[in-house]
Design goal:
With about 450 residues, the chain is mainly alpha-helical. Helices cover about 80% and strands about 0% of the residues. It is globular, with a radius of gyration of 21 Å. It comes from Cellvibrio fontiphilus.
Length: about 450
């Protein structure tokens, strides 16, 4: 396809078909992401038999690979030139390798303890590399489909409605699927469940490829190196704030999601409610994402995100003081916290696209792939930090897999679900206060960029 754009293309009103097609891709991604966030730590400690501390360190150390591969992928995507555009081709060709990497990550070969740890390092790193090859172009795609502010908010809200639908499906059906597909063989059940998710995800990515269009291209005269792209980003104050914010908020989300299994099984002692707890959490996240376009019509994105993260922090801390037998109250608080967290993702990813526009407005250069690759890395780093903190705390409090926990262990597990993510959410609210791109500033940026596009024709 031609990468030439016009002012009208830049401010395109997207069809419902294109929005839904784009959104379906993130349903596919969250079949993986939710499996990692909610179950991979449990899989390592309770199924594969890796010590909690070692698994926690692995989650963090493997981010070194991501620190290298994410910006490389961003630079490669920015410089990709095909008749289908820069970003869409990766969705068509990388889905099957991603599925294979997920299956071997959730496999349990007979190895020594050290062998298992090495296997986990290699397979998890491979899976996240495949994830990067897919997710960086996918996220970047949202930045080049339209620059219309409200259309962009709506598009990304569609994306995260589908994302949370994927999360909800994973949280509700993964453990039953493992039991059903494995027919008593838990290890086989995990392999077959991930194979099923991989097939569905690959189809979703292909649908996104065929239903979307790239409309915004870098300025025709632009010639930059990856190093100059990185320099532009480091000079981009809004982007730097968003990166710090992504790390902190993903720690909150991962701590809540990853500790839910332990919280329900060992603290509330209601393991039969794990799927229901995660199911209502996913629905509430989806509802929160769905109402985001309505909220942004009346409240500036920055103020809205600050308010929501403050609510998450206060309610999470309050949840610690609810006695374990007040299960219904705990469920209600979980729903309210998830409702407040739901708009976070569409707001933050819309702001990443805004920061790419800010770079183009400020420098005359655009590096959408690099902008989103660093955002993807920050998200993965925050998730890894959340998982690492959770597993390190479990190791420190003497957690023993599949056994009754001591009082100290139960208290630590409760903290992982409540106060610790609550405090981190309040830190996120403080970080947001420094973000400078208000609605008025964004309107000025888009007006100037539209004029430049018209003048260059």
């Amino acid at each position: 396809m031609s990468m030439n754009t016009s002012t009208n293309d830049r401010l395109a009103q997207l069809s419902l078909r294109e929005k839904m097609g784009f959104a379906l891709g993130d349903l596919g991604f969250n079949l993986y992401w939710a499996s990692i966030a909610s179950f991979l730590a449990v899989f390592y400690t309770d199924v594969f038999g890796i010590p909690a501390a070692a698994a926690g360190t692995m989650f963090l150390v493997t981010k070194i690979v991501d620190a290298i591969t994410d910006p490389i992928m961003g630079a490669v995507a920015d410089r990709t030139k095909t008749r289908w555009g820069k970003f869409r081709p990766y969705l068509l060709f990388a889905g099957v390798p991603m599925a294979g990497a997920a299956v071997i990550t959730f496999s349990t070969p007979e190895l020594s303890e050290n062998g298992k740890i090495i296997y986990a390092y290699i397979t998890y790193s491979l899976m996240m590399l495949c994830y990067t090859i897919l997710s960086t172009p996918y996220s970047s795609l949202s930045g080049v489909m339209t620059a219309h502010p409200q259309e962009r908010n709506t598009l990304i809200s569609f994306r995260f409605i589908a994302a949370f639908a994927g999360t909800t499906l994973v949280n509700k059906f993964t453990l039953p699927l493992v039991e059903y597909l494995g027919a008593g063989d838990e290890e086989l059940g995990w392999q077959l469940t991930m194979a099923l998710y991989g097939c569905v995800a690959a189809i979703a990515f292909a649908i996104t490829f065929f239903s979307t269009r790239e409309r915004i291209a870098p300025p025709p005269q632009q010639k930059t190196s990856p190093l100059s792209d990185i320099k532009d980003l480091l000079d981009n104050r809004p982007w730097l704030i968003l990166i710090a914010l992504a790390i902190v908020i993903m720690m909150t989300i991962t701590l809540r999601g990853g500790s839910s299994y332990y919280y329900l099984k060992y603290y509330l002692q209601r393991p039969e409610l794990i799927s229901d707890y995660l199911f209502v959490q996913g629905i509430a996240l989806g509802v929160g994402a769905a109402i985001t376009p309505l909220l942004t019509k009346y409240i500036d994105k920055t103020k809205l995100l600050m308010l929501l993260m403050s609510i998450v922090g206060v309610l999470s801390i309050l949840m610690y003081f609810i006695p374990p037998h007040y299960v219904s109250v705990i469920f209600v608080l979980n729903i309210l916290i998830s409702l407040a967290l739901g708009p976070k993702s569409p707001l933050a990813w819309s702001m990443y696209a805004d920061s790419a526009d800010y770079t183009e407005w400020k420098t005359g250069r655009r590096a959408t792939g690099m902008t989103f690759s660093a955002a993807t890395f920050a998200q993965k780093l925050g998730g890894a930090l959340g998982s690492a903190v959770m597993l390190w705390v479990l190791a420190a409090i003497g957690y023993v897999a599949k056994e009754a926990q001591s009082d100290a262990s139960q208290t630590g597990i409760a903290l992982l679900q409540t106060i610790i993510p609550g405090v981190i959410a309040l830190i996120a609210a403080a970080i947001i206060s420094f973000y400078p791109l208000t609605n008025a500033m964004l309107a000025r940026i888009q007006s100037d960029l539209n004029q430049r596009t018209a003048d260059s024709r």
